[in-house]
Amino acid sequence: MKESINIIISGGGTGGHIYPAIAIANEIKLRYPSAKILFVGAKDKMEMEKVPQAGYSIKGLWISGIQRKLTLKNLLFPFKLISSLWKANQIINKFKPDVAVGTGGFASGPTLIMANRKNIPTLVQEQNSFPGITNKLLAKKAKKICVAYDNLERFFPASKIIKTGNPVRQDLLFIHTKREESLDFFELNKKKKTILVIGGSLGARKVNELVAFNLDFFKSQDVQLIWQCGKLYHDEYKIFNEEPYVQVHQFLNRMDLAYAAADFVISRAGASSVSELCIVGKPTIFIPSPNVAEDHQTKNAKAIVDRHGAILVKESELDTFPLVLETLLKDEGKQQSLSDNIKALALPNATNHIVNELEKLII
To answer: Most CB within 10 Å of its CB: which of 11, 275, 303, 342?
Structure first.
C-alpha cells in the first residue's frame, strides 16, 4: 500500500447514493488518516450539501438524467454530458486519484468513464437488485463490482462481482440498547405501539397521502406515528402535529433512535432503506415507488418479501392497506416471523468488505 493515497468517490442525487459513499469514505479515513478523498457530485443535488456536512470536499458536474417522457430538458443532455466529461477529466488530471469509486447517480457516469480512460482502477457499488443504466455501462470497464443482492450475473460480468451488501449507518447495529433513550427523545407514550413512516429524504407523495387519509384509522388502532414526510411535503402536513398521536418530521437526524422507537415500519424500498431495515429487524410494510428506473424498488422489496421478511403493498393496491396493517397489528406470531426473517438477510459488515476490495486495487 502506498504511503499517500488519493481516492475519488462519485455518486449522488438521492440519499441512497450519498450515504453509502460517505460510509465508504469514513472507513477509508479510519484506516488511512492521511488519505485524500475528493467527492464528485451533480450540481444542485443534495450531495453538494450533505458531503461537506460530513467533512469532505466535493466538486460539482453539470449533469442530470434523461427524462423518460419527451421534454425539452432532454435536449440539453448531450451538452451536459460533454461538459461533465470535460470537467471530470480536469478534476482527475489535477487530483491524480489512485482509484475511483462510483456509488450510482448521474455524476458517477462521467467521472468513472474518464477514470477508466486513464487506466485508473474503478470500483462500482451497486445498491439495488436491479441496476441502473449508469452502473450497467460502467461495469464493463470496472475492476470490481460490489453488490447487495444475488443473481446480478444477469447484468454484470460474474468474475467481477463481490457480494458485500450496502453500507449502512453503524449506529444502527446497537439500536436494541437505545429503546428507553428513543422513547424519551421523541417524547412518546410508552404504553402505545409506535409506527415509523419513512418515505425517503425528499418524501413520497403517495405514502404521505395514504397516512393523512388514514389518520383516523391509526387513531382507532391506538398507535402513535413518527412520520417523516420529507422536505417537499413538510409545509403541507405539519398541521397534523396538532394531533397528540402524530409527529410530523421533515427529516430525521437521529435515524438510530427513530428505528429504536419503532415497533413497526412503513417504508419505501430504496436500496439503503432496505439494507437498514434488514439490520433493524422490525416488522415492515414496503410501499415501493413505481416511478423509478426499471421499477427497481419493487424488485428490492420482493427480494425481502420472497424470503418472508416483509409485507409488500403496491401503490395500485393502497386501498388494502388498512386491512393489511390491522391484521399485522393483531398477529404477534407474524410480527415475530417477519422480524426474524428480515434480520437473517442483514449484511452488517458491508462497508468493511467494500473497503477491503478497494485496498486490493491500490498498489
So the answer is: 11
The proportion of the chain whose per-residue pLDDT surpasses 70, expressed as a percent, equals 95
Q: Is residue 1 part of a domain?
A: no
Parent domain of 214 = 170-343
Tell me, what CATH number does 302's domain have? 3.40.50.2000
At residue 4, the pLDDT reads 82
- What percentage of the chain reaches a pLDDT higher than 90? 78
Confidence of residue 130 (pLDDT cuts 50, 70, 90): confident
Shared domain check, 233 and 154: no
In a domain, 183, yes or no: yes
